[in-house]
Amino acid sequence: MRTQMLAALGAAALAAAGVTGVSAIAGASSGGSPSRLDDGRDFLPQSKITEQQAIGAARTAASGGLNEVDLEHYSGHLVWNVDVGSHDVKVDADSGKVVANSKDD
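Below the sequence we write its predicted structure tokens.
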């Protein structure tokens, strides 16, 4: 009985750790901050910078509240599209450089 109880507790602990790990990957990028990524999750393995790095770069180009973040193709490059205030800031997913900054209509 005790062996079965310990086995069940061990399995429950492993399951909980697995769920936590998956949640961390799906819901946040480095630094433990919650993810704002809306579209483009399939492109994550192709990005050399993290979502948080892209947000940091975008905030150097525009000010205001942080809204939606997408990972998409723009002018033949993979970019993070970060909505900061009334601006649409595109950050190169390889270099982390701001490649476009336009005011939303």
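The helical segments are 2-27, 51-61.
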